[in-house]
Amino acid sequence: MTDTRSDPATGSGDISLHVRIKGRVQGVWYRAWTVEQATKRHLTGWVRNRDDGSVEAVFCGPVDAVRSMITACYDGPTFARVDRIDEEPVFEDGFDTFEKRPTA
Description:
Elements: E1 14-24, H1 30-40, E2 44-49, E3 55-62, H2 63-75, E4 81-89, E5 98-100
Parallel strand pairs: 2-5
Antiparallel strand pairs: 1-3, 1-4, 2-3
């Protein structure tokens, strides 16, 4: 389900996506890079490492900016290797900033 504030036909409005990024994404500054990239796109939400070696994030903001962020996540920082990104829409927003959270 897409956030009801968005219009998928035009790509306008806001959405919230929950993502799991898998590959070599821990120990390569992936979270700090994600905070920097999300902030540049004026997104809100959070990012954290997972105990299974993946990185998890919620990106909230304009459809085009969130899509741009997902595309950027496939490249990641210099030493990262992204094998797969799983994403699903969520009804989570209300964040004021984009923050790094502790490992879960």
